Amino acid sequence: MTLGTPTTLATAADEPGTEMPYAVEDGSYPNRAEILGITGADLIAGDGNITLTPCSGPYQIKVWAVKLKTGDSRICFSAAKTGYLQVNIPRAYRIETIHRDIKASVSIAGDTEDLTVLRDTSAGFGEADLTDPQQAVLLDMRVTGAASSTPPGVSADITGLSFSGRLNIGDVKHCSATLVDPQWVLSAKSCFAEKPAEGNTVTAGVPKQKTTVVLGRPHINLLGGHASDIVELVPHPDRDLVMGRLATSSTNIAPAVLSATGPVAGQKLTIPAFGRTQTEWVPFTRHDGAFTTETVEATGFGLTPQAPAETTVCAGDAGAPVVRQVDVRQFALVGIMSRSWAGNCMGGTETRTGASAVRVDDLATWMQQTRSGKTSTLLQSGANLYQGIRLADGSWTDFTDVQAKASNIGGIRTATAAGIGSSTHVLAVGTDGRLHHSIRRIDGTWTEFGDVGEVAGFLGSLTQVSAVSVGEDLHVLALANGKVFHTLRTAAGHWSLFGDISAVVGPIGTVTSLATASAGGQLQVSAVTGGKAFHTIRTASGHWSIWGDISQAAQATGAISSIAMAGIGADAHVVIATDNGTRQYHALRTATGHWEPFSELRAILGTVTIKSVGAAGVDGQLQLTATTSDNKLLHTIRHADRTWSPTTQVTPQGVPSTLTATAITGTL
């Protein structure tokens, strides 16, 4: 790693308008132009595991080619047990291997062919016409053996910096990363940009290239630490930051602790990273550099090394944590590395060594909301609607005014929520009598409310709405004039027209409330009429079953005043409040269609009067919320082993007045 002299955050003072590059390792082969000039072979990019070496010494790959500029007909490479190198070697005609299995791509007369060369063998290509072998061009080589052997010992990171790690993006890109939650790392958004030299725009969702992270190892190939795929990206809207969700949570590494205060000029900071150094292209050993803070701005700060001759920020250091030591082996995270002039780095000619980092000390709320993103709860209070999130540790975020985030529609009568991926879809019946739709993205931003009636047809006398996702599709059930209507929003954003489902499921009288669930890839709907609940299913093919009387299958109860549903796997859970909310029950419809009887929840919820219930399946568990007549918000969880957590009272910070209705949904 190498970091440098004082600089502004974006431009060098001696070259106005020249932007400091992002410190992303794109795999470019060091000294590429020089090697091309000497050999005639263009070594384009790689992962650092296949490198040029003299043919006079030990090598694992030898490529034969006609009239290389060296005057020789061969060029040799050292190769680890796995590796990749993109090349352009014209007039190549044979590959020889030693102790390595190789796959290569070769262009012969314009057509690309794949070539397999087993260890300790050789294979020719394009040799049909030996008088004109320039038709064959070697395009890339990949070592396909087992992973590199592990050095002796295990990870023994006693520095307190084990939350740092290395990102591997696709075949050749590398960056650094910081563990900030057992399931999330923080890195630089530019690491995932298609062309970091031109910008750092990144789309939220699954990474476009396979991405892995290795954490808690001062040497990448040591045992211990934690390794995982990155399965989701959440870019920050304004800064060079991205959150990456791990496929498997880290349970043995303490995440970095976010600093409560920002950096100040002259402050001593440490940067542990895995980027290039002055002598190594893709280091396997982490390097911890000492730096001093320079100019501090609202969103970032400059850095200079305490030992300029030894330490600079290079390609691959983007995403590394910038930390302040607060005690022995204890650090506070103040920033994430972003840009560097990369002076004195391997393969470069730049002499400037300035670098800049992005501030994170003021982003606690964004990081909290991003990494929580599991349980989203709506609370209605008068004509206002609020949304809050239950975090993995059981705490709750503040509740925010949905209309202030999405757009003001003049007041809300009733609303519901459905999770699709990492987004929360909110459907709200406004005081204008129309149905509106908004999406809360995982980064905390909202789309403006749109009028569903304009795309799915207008319904009069709307009194309730319920929604749920089935795969990537959003199913919306609306109650209007005592009838149940259905529409579907596809993953592409197309809405079908509302249809009265009584035409296919039969009439049951005037419906007063309804609930939906996704179970086993099917839409399940419950509707209450005359105080009794009825049930129907819409299959994946769009076929509806006729209404069934739940009381006949799960036993009769008092008149139902509130109902909620949730799907977990192929099972559908139904929660109801009856007898004007004074009694509450839970029932389960199994994947086989069998109904387990309603069981009373007084031992779980206590003696309360419920105004509204909400239910959602989150991580294989049933989460339940309820508002009570004495203005409380309750929450409990039914676990997979059928036990219930003690009910807790949630204090909905940010909700100023009486609570009326609640809805809950889960997201990824």
Describe, in plain words, how this protein is organized in 3D.
This protein folds into three domains: 1-26 and 150-372, Beta Barrel (Thrombin, subunit H); 50-144, Gamma-B Crystallin, domain 1 (Sandwich); 373-666, Neuraminidase, CATH 2.120.10. The strands form eleven sheets. Strands 19, 20, 21, 22, 23, 24 and 25 form a seven-stranded mixed beta sheet that branches. Strands 13-14-15-18-17-16 form a six-stranded antiparallel beta barrel. Strands 3-7-12-9-10 form a five-stranded antiparallel beta sheet. The two termini are 35 Å apart. It is mainly beta. It is built from seven helices and 49 strands.
Secondary-structure blueprint:
Layout: E1 11-12, E2 15-19, H1 32-39, E3 42-46, E4 50-53, E5 61-65, E6 74-79, E7 82-90, E8 92-97, E9 102-108, E10 111-117, E11 122-124, E12 136-144, E13 164-169, E14 173-181, E15 184-187, E16 211-215, E17 226-235, E18 242-246, E19 257-258, E20 268-273, E21 287-296, E22 300-305, E23 321-327, E24 330-340, E25 355-359, H2 364-372, E26 375-381, E27 384-390, E28 400-401, H3 402-405, E29 412-420, E30 423-430, E31 435-440, E32 450-451, H4 453-456, E33 462-470, E34 473-480, E35 483-489, E36 499-500, H5 502-505, E37 513-519, E38 522-529, E39 532-538, E40 548-549, H6 550-554, E41 560-568, E42 571-578, E43 583-589, E44 595-600, H7 602-605, E45 610-618, E46 621-628, E47 633-638, E48 648-650, E49 662-666
Parallel strand pairs: 19-24
Antiparallel strand pairs: 1-2, 3-7, 4-6, 5-6, 5-8, 7-12, 8-11, 9-10, 9-12, 13-14, 13-16, 14-15, 15-18, 16-17, 17-18, 20-21, 21-22, 22-25, 23-24, 24-25, 26-27, 26-49, 27-28, 29-30, 30-31, 31-32, 33-34, 34-35, 35-36, 37-38, 38-39, 39-40, 41-42, 42-43, 43-44, 45-46, 46-47, 47-48
